[in-house]
Amino acid sequence: MSSPLPATLRDTFSFATWASLGLSWTVVVAFLAFGHSWLAAPISAPVGVVSFVVLFSTILFAAFGVVREADHLAHRLGEPYGTLILTLSIVSIEVILISAVMAGPGESATIGRDAMFAVMMIILNLVMGLCLFLGGLRYGEQEYNAQGAAAYLSMIIGLTGIGLVLPNVVSTGDGTFAPRQAVPISALTLILYAAFLAMQMRRYRRFFVQPEPGLLESPLASVAESEAVHEGRTGNAAGEEDRRVVWLRSVVLLALLVPIVLLSHNLAVLIDLGITAVGAPIAISGVIIAIIVFTPESITAVRAALANHVQRAVNLCLGAFLSTVGLTVPAVLVIGLIMDKPVVLGLSAPETVLLVLTIAISTITFLGIRTSPIQGMMHLMLFAVFLVLLLSP
Description:
Layout: H1 7-12, H2 15-38, H3 45-77, H4 81-103, H5 111-139, H6 146-165, H7 179-201, H8 223-234, H9 237-240, H10 243-278, H11 283-306, H12 310-339, H13 349-365, H14 373-391
Helix pairs in contact: 2-3, 2-10, 3-4, 3-10, 3-11, 4-10, 4-11, 4-12, 5-11, 5-12, 5-13, 5-14, 6-7, 6-12, 6-13, 7-12, 11-12, 13-14
């Protein structure tokens, strides 16, 4: 007689999971059947507003489902594998939405830049600021692995400098890369990011795991001791659990990603129409994408900090932005070449100042081995300045 299904397997078919799948696919079927008539030009204001709310809510709901399933996988696989699955799942949604906007009829030359910059302001300033401030209020100073934070920041500095600042000073001078530059820069960015992931998953895995209390203070603590501690904590979680659960959760995760792909084009059309109708800054479309994509992961990061798992919050925030740049820059450059559309990546002067300030303060924030709510307040200040510049250019 077969053994009963484990509780974790039954959780896969919980109400939340079925609700996410049911709602997402119901909306997909509805728009595949009737969307061409609902969104046919000219679109009336009531139909446009209702359609946008439905699509925005559905994609956000599906994104929450993706995060929920990825989070379950994260707990099974341990760090940093789990956080990597979560981060790559979220960033894949971002690339899908950006690609949909670029394929649309509206102005899309700056959508990749705007989305990446919005992600930076939201993740590195708003979310990280909340993690540092709220976690500090609850626990005082919180320990994290400084080597991992330094590795993330070095990659972020290099890739953001190349992807978002360098285009302003190359031969074109208009914030774009020439085709002969776009291809090798895309390839180099992907190679560097892939090499980082390989090192993160293997030899330098210990950099991205929560340090044991007191281990960092001891100058005699060797690398071998640190590795032994973390291997004992994480273990091979996936090998100890029923592999069917991992596979089923992976299938559910993909089943929630597909509706986002199928609905993203319709949402992109409505975003273009809405921005044109109200005369809002084009950068708002990047902010909308960032909100859809990173709201679930942001909530997960803040919860981790409040549970005193600050290393997970660091992995989520810094890893999410690194993945955003490492994958979005090559994606938009390649899509631009395929669609023969211009891709403006170079930031404006005010944005460049905010970029430099964010990188500088983030570097100072993670110089030590413990967080401080003081730096959290400064990160929140930078996000507030971003909103001021966005809403009153």
